[in-house]
Amino acid sequence: MKNPVYTFEKLKFASFEFTCCEGCQLQLANREASLEAFFSLLDVRTFREISSEKHDDYDIAFVEGSISRSDEIERLLAIRRQAKTLVAFGTCACFGGVNSLKNRFPIKESIAEVYDGLPVETLPVRKISDIVKVDLSIPGCPVAKEEIERIVVNLVTGSLPAMPKYPVCVECKERLNTCLFDLGEICLGPVTRAGCSAVCTSGKTPCLGCRGPAEDSNFPAFMELVKERGLSRRDLQEKLGFYNAFEAYTVHET
Ligand code: SF4
Ligand code: SF4
Ligand code: SF4
């Protein structure tokens, strides 16, 4: 029997960066074993990190980074006008990311101190969905390439992309890791969306929640755990605020 022949239309794809380290775009060009298959699904129209080609006739735009300048707003609006589907990918794009730490400090004074009075235009950091409609968000600092590959296959085949609703703890326990709470540390694994293969906790580093809140998590129980273990609420608040991914989950110091 002959193998079935599948036909599909390549996605007219573009990738753009805003305020960020570009590590998420780098992930798209990562994972050599599947790179050829991955790019066989895409008709890359614009993607500065991998190609000098530059075309404006894309259908799907992957947008990385947060917004921190007025010219970025204009560029993002133009991308939104062109793209049938706009995907915010990476924690900076989805939540503001580490860039949001800047919002805690007075902008004028900080610029004066760091840039010695040179003129620098910078606005409070905003996530992509604060400016334009986002059709799909893929979190992660950086994004997980395997997850991006699955989602691109979903988009090419017209099926609904899905991400885990359960928390990082599930993946961490699958790896038989010692729980960092048992070592006296606060870990955001119980309330953070899985999908990263518990990469940090497998290296004995507590989860800082870069993938944002998990739908299937129990935040009150998590708070109870932090309290039972006598761990610092201030540390907890610092961790929850690190990527700006838990805006709705403010805790008060006791
Ligand atoms: S989410 Fe992380 S890896 Fe991705 S661009 Fe932002 S800082 Fe870089
Ligand atoms: S180390 Fe963190 S992610 Fe792993 S089981 Fe403990 S709380 Fe969950
Ligand atoms: S363990 Fe937590 S901080 Fe680390 S990659 Fe996964 S979600 Fe992000």
Describe the protein in words.
The radius of gyration is 20 Å and the shape is globular. The chain is built from ten helices and five strands, in the order E-H-H-E-E-H-E-H-H-E-H-H-H-H-H. Helix content is 33%, strand content 10%. It is an alpha/beta fold. It folds into two domains: 11-157, Rossmann fold, CATH 3.40.50; 168-241, no CATH class. One iron/sulfur cluster binds at residues 168-169, 172-173, 177, 179-181, 187, 189-190, 198, 201, 207.
Topology overview:
Elements: E1 11-17, H1 23-28, H2 32-39, E2 42-47, E3 60-64, H3 70-82, E4 85-89, H4 91-95, H5 107-115, E5 136-138, H6 145-157, H7 168-174, H8 199-202, H9 219-228, H10 233-241
Parallel strand pairs: 1-2, 1-3, 3-4, 4-5
The structure holds iron/sulfur cluster (3 copies).
One iron/sulfur cluster (SF4) binds at residues 20-24, 64-65, 90-92, 97-98, 141-142.
Oligomer: single chain
| Ions, cofactors and other bound molecules | iron/sulfur cluster
Q: How many H/I helices?
A: 10
- Tell me, what's the shape? globular
CATH topology of the largest domain: Rossmann fold
Gap between N and C termini: 70 Å
Brief sketch in words of this structure:
The chain is an alpha/beta fold and 254 residues long. It has ten helices and five strands. Bound molecules: iron/sulfur cluster (3 copies).
Structural key phrases:
binds iron/sulfur cluster; 254 residues; five-stranded parallel sheet; Rossmann fold; single chain
